[in-house]
Amino acid sequence: MALTGVLGLGAALRWVLGETAKEYLGRDFPRRFARWLKGRDLPPAAGTHFTVLIADLKRDGDGSQTDHVAAALVPYNGIDVMRVGSGPEWDSGSRAILEDQARRLLADKRGDVLIFGEVAKADERLRLYLMGGHEHSKTQFGSYTLETAELPKDFGDDFNAVLLAVIAAQIAPATEQAGQYLVDLLRPAADRLRRLCRHMPVGLDDDQRGSLWHSLGSAAEVLGEQAGENDWLQQAVEACRAALEIRTRERVPLDWAATQLNLGNALTTLGAREDAPERLRQAVNAYRAALKVYTRERLPLGWAMIQNNLGNALRALGEREDDTARLEQAVEACRAALEVYTSERLPLGWAMIQNNLGTALGALGAREDGIGRLEQAVEAFRDALEVRTRERVPLDWAMTQDNLGNALTILGEREDGAARLEQAVEAFRAALEIYTRERVPLDWAMTQNNLGNALTILGEREDGTARLEQAVEAGRAALEIYTRERVPLRWALAQNNLSNALRALGEREDGAARLEQAVAASRAALEVYTRERVPLDWAMTQNNLGNALRTLGERESGTTPLEQAVAAYRAALEVFRTAGASYYVGGTERNLAHAEALLAERRGASAAE
User: Fold this and answer.
1) For 454-489, what is each residue's pLDDT tens digit?
2) Strand pairing partners for 22?
C-alpha cells in the first residue's frame, strides 16, 4: 500500500472580512494552500475594468470633498468612477441596516466597490466606508461588510495610498479570477503607505493612526498573497498588530474585529507557506477573537464569513497535527457558515463554502476507515460546480475540479475498479485547461502532482506501463516549478509522490534503477518532512520509503534494504497510531508484515547456507 499526498484537497478559497476572497492555500491545499503567484508570471487581462461607486458625502455642502475622493482615483487605469448621488441613510440606527442599504445600492448599480461616508466638521476629517462586490458585479462576490478609512480633508498623494489600498483589497478576488493581478498597481501605493505609517504626520488622532496601520495591513496582505512575497505578509501581520494596539475592543469593537480578521488572513497565508504550525494557531485565535464581536445575531453575513475563514485555518492546522479534532472543527465551522450563505440568497458565496467544506471532509475522510466522509466531499464539490461554471468563474471552476479529482483519487484507491480513478484523471485534465504553466505556474504544478497520483494508482491496476510513465512525467513536471527553495513543503510532497510512481514502474521493469530513484526521492522528501514539523506527512513518506526498499530488497541479495524497510514501516506506525489514522494504520501494518516475512525468509535462507 502506497500513501499519496494530495495538493488541492484543502486548497480552499478563503473569505476576507472587509477585504477580499482568496485561494488559501487554499487552496490553497491548498486557495490554497495559498496561490503564491508572482505578478510577473501573470499577463494582465486586457479590458478588465472595475467600477467604484461614490456616493455624496454627508455634510459636504459644496461637494468639494466628494469631488476630491473621486479625483483621487482618476489616475489609476482599470478603475472607473461612477457618482451615484445619495448613499445609505445614516439615521437607521443599525450597522446591519446600513450594510444592507449599501449592498442594495451595489446591486442596483452593478458596482464593484461603494464608497460613502461623511465630512466630520468638528475635526476636519473624512470618515469613509467601503463595501465590496455583490453577486452580479465583476467581483462575483464581495465582503458584504463595511471597511473604514479615516482621511484628512483635502488629502494629498500620501493619503491617496490609503484609499487605493482599501479599494484594491476589495477588487483583488475579481482580478485573480480574470488572471489580472494588482501587484504593479498596488506596490507603489503600499510603499508610500508604509513610509506614512513609519513617520506618522503630526496631529493625527488614534482613529486616524489606527486606520493607517489597518490600511497598510490590507495592502501588504494582498501584495504578499499575489506577489508570493512573505516579507509583505510579515509586514501585514506587524501592521495589524500595531493597529490593534490603537483599535482596542473596548473603544472601537467593530474596527478591532475587522483588524483581527485581517490578522487572521495574513497569518493563515503565511502559515501555509511555513513548516511550523504556529502561525496557523495564531490565525485561529485571531478569527475566534473576531467572532466575539461579529455574532450571528448582530451581523450574520460577517459572522458566516469569519466561520468560513476559521474553517480553512483549522483545516490547514489539522493536516499538520496528529489528531482529527481540528478537522472536525473545520467541518463544523463550514457547515455553520452554510446556515447563512444559502444557494438561493448568495449562490457564489454558497458554492465557495461548499468547496471549502469538501476540502475539510476530504482531509478528514483520508484518515478514517470507510468512504462516508469522502463521498460527502465529492458531493460538496459537485454541488459547488453547479454554480462555479467554467464560463462564470474559470479559475474557481478549475480549483474545484482539482479538489474533486483528489477526493475521487482517494475514493478510487479504496474501491475496486477504475471508474473513480478515471473520473479523477478527467477532472485533473479539465483543470489543466485553465491552469496553464504560463498563467498560473504553481497551480499548474499542483494539478500535475495530483494527476500523477491518480495515474500511479490507475497504472498499478492495469497491464503495461503507459499510465505509470505518464505519472512519472507529471511528477517531474511539477518539480520543475516546485523547487525546494521556493516552496519546500510542496517540493517534498511532489518528491514523495514521484517516489510512488517510480516504485510502481520499477516493479514492472528489469533492473533496479527506477527503484533506486524511488528511494532517493523519498529520502529527499524526508529532508523537509520531519517528524517534529509535519508528523503525518513524515509517516506517509516513511511508509512509501519502506515500499521502495522492500521491493528493492526482494531483488537484491542480503538483508539491508529489507531491514531498512521494516524500520521505516515501524517508524510510520508510531505516528499513525498516535494520530488515530486507522486507514493508514491498517495499510502500513500489512506492509510491515510482508516486509518482516520476507526478511525472516531471507535470514532463514542465509542461516541454512
Assistant:
1) 999 999 999 999 999 999 999 999 999 999 988 888
2) 14
Residue 141 makes CB contacts below 8 A (sequence gap 6+) with: 21, 133, 134, 135, 173, 346, 348, 349, 352
501: its cell numbers: 510512481
Q: Strands 50-55 and 113-120: what pairing?
A: parallel
CA of residue 456 relative to chain centroid, distance: 26
For residues 584 and 569, give the distance between their C-alpha atoms in angstroms, rounded to a whole number.
Answer: 11
Q: By the 8 A CB rule, do 4 and 497 touch?
A: yes
Residues 6+ apart with CB under 8 A from 233: 220, 221, 224, 225, 266, 269, 270, 273
Instruction: Give the CA distances from residue 292 to residues 307, 402, 553, 588, in Å, rounded to whole numbers and listed in that order.
Output: 12, 35, 58, 44
Q: Which residue has the cell 484628512?
A: 152
pLDDT tens per residue across span 49-59:
678 899 999 88
Closest CA to 86 of 113, 112, 114: 114
Asked if residue 125 has pLDDT above 90, the reply is no
Q: Which CATH class is domain 488-493+507-609?
A: mainly alpha
- Closest listed residue to residue 242, CA positions, set 265, 274, 217: 217
Directed axis angle between helix 466-481 and helix 488-508, to 10°? Answer: 160
Q: What is the mean pLDDT of residues 247-266?
A: 94
On whether the CB atoms of residues 354 and 383 are closer than 8 A, the answer is yes
How many residues in total does the chain contain?
Answer: 609
- Cell output for 312: 480553512
Q: Among 143, 96, 127, 134, which Cα is nearest to 112's?
A: 134
Cell of 384: 459547488
Whole-angstrom distance, CA of residue 396 vs CA of residue 409: 20
Third-level CATH fold of 12-405: 1.25.40
With cell 507557506, the residue in question is 273
Helix (H, G, I), strand (E, B) or coil at 53: strand
Residue span(s) of the chain under CATH 1.25.40.10 come to: 12-405
Query: Side chain identity at 321, as an amino acid letter?
Result: E
CB of 263 closer than 8 Å to CB of 280? no
| pLDDT (tens digit per residue) in 144-199 | 455 677 777 776 766 777 777 777 766 665 555 544 556 777 788 788 889 889 98
Q: Rounded to whole angstroms, how far apart are CA atoms 32 and 400?
A: 11
The Cα–Cα gap between 119 and 62 comes to 11
CA separation for the pair 518, 537 (Å, rounded):
17
- Are 162 and 186 a contacting pair, CB within 8 Å? no
Quote the cell numbers at residue 161: 495610498
Residues whose CB falls within 8 Å of the CB of residue 322, separated by 6 or more in sequence, listed in order: 535, 536, 575, 578, 579
Decide: helix, strand or coil at residue 146: coil
Q: How far lies 183's CA from each of 38, 126, 191, 348, in Å?
A: 9, 27, 12, 25
DSSP states along 562-591: HHHHHHHHHHHHHHHHHHT-HHHHHHHHHH
List the alpha helices (DSSP H) in 11-156. 64-73, 95-109
Q: Give per-residue burial for 60-97: e unless 16+ CB within 10 Å, then b.
A: beeeebbebbbebbeebeebebeebeebbeeeeeeeee
What is the rounded CA–CA span in Å between residue 413 and residue 512?
26
Run of H or E including 22: strand 21-24
Which of left, alpha, beta for 327 (phi over 0: left; psi -120 to 50: alpha)?
alpha
For 279-301, the pLDDT digits (tens) are 999 999 999 999 999 999 988 98
